[in-house]
User: What shape does this take?
Amino acid sequence: MNAPLPKAPMNWIAIFALVFLPIVAVIAIPLYAMNHDFSAAAWISMIILLGVSSLGITAGYHRLWAHRAYEATLPLKIILMLMGTFAVQNSILFWASGHRTHHRHVDDVDQDPYSINRGFWYAHIGWMLRDYPAAAPNYKNAPDLLKDKVVMFQDKYYIPLVIAVHAAILLPIGWAVGDMWGVLLLSGLMRLILSHHVTFFINSLCHMWGKRPYTDENTARDNFVLAIATWGEGYHNYHHIFQYDYRNGVKWWQYDPTKWLIWSCSKLGLAKNLRRIPSFNIKKAELAMKFKYAEQDLAIYGLNMTDDIATAKQRISQEYDAFSQTLNDWAKLKEQEIQAKKTAVAEKIHQMDDKLKLEFQQVEQRLSHHRETLNQLMRNLKKKTV
Assistant: This one.
C-alpha cells in the first residue's frame, strides 16, 4: 500500500489554469452557442491550433529539449518554443527537467513527479494542483538547458510570452474571419483545455492502458488509440526503453506525426543528427519480451504437463539459447567494428564495414526466424490445451 501523500500547499496558478478555466469553458461556450453560431472558420482554426500547440510540446518540449533526440537550428528552436508557449504547460526548463526526473525514477511513488502508482487522478492532473516535493524544480539534471539561450529567454519572460503569443495568434484570426468571440472561445479556451489533457494522457492512460512489447520493467504502455490522440506519443512502452530515439512510432506503419514533422524539418535543413536506436537493439528487446511472455503462457497452459507441452517447452528453451548465442555474436561483431576503427587504415575499415553490414543482416534474419518459431510454438501449444 502506498504511503499517503504529504500535505503540500495549493498551486493556485495551476488551479486557475486547470480547474477554473475548464469551469469557465463549460459555462461560457454553451451560453455563447445558444445565442450565436460558431463560424466554420472558428472550428477549423481550433483544430489547426490544437495541432500547433500540441506539436510544440511533443516535437519541442519533449523530443528536442527533454531528450535531445535531435538537433534544431535557431529558427526552428524559436518556432517550437513559441508553439510550446502557446500550449501553456510551464516553461521548457521546468517541463523538460521534470520529465527527465520522471524517466529516471519512473513509477517511484516518492521521486517520480507524476507516478501512476499514486493513481490515475494524481498522474493525470493532481500532481500539479499542489506543490508536492517530487515535482519541485531541480535543474541539476539540465545543465544543457541552462546554457540554451532560447530556453532561458522563455523561462525568464514566460508569462509575457504566453500573453503575447495568444494575442498575436488569436486576435488576427478572429478579426480576419469576423468571429472574434468564436475564435477566442474555441481556438483559445477550448483548444487550451484539449491541448492540456492530450498531453496529460501520456502521464496517466499511457501508463495504464495498452501493451508492453519491449519491456515490463515499468508501467509504460504502447497504445495506438492514444497515439492518435497524443500526436504519436502513445507508443510509450517503446519510448521508456529507448527514450533518445526521435521516433516513438518506430514501425513504418505506426501513426507518429511528431516523427514525420521532425524528419521533414531535417530534409529542409532545419534539424539534424536525428537519433535512431539500431534495429537490432529494438528486435532484441522485442524478442526478449516474447520469451518472457512465452514462459508466462507455459506457466498457465503447462500445468497439466503432456509430452507435447514438455517438448514445446524444451524447444522454447532451445530457441532462447539460440537467441543468447545471437546476442553474443552481435557483441563480438560490435567489438570487431570498434577495434577496426581504432587500428585499421581507411580501406580496411571500409572492407570491414561491408563485411559487418552483411553479418548484421544475417544476425537480424536469425532474430526474425527465432521470433517466428516462437510464435508458431505458442500458437500450437495453445491449440492443444484449449
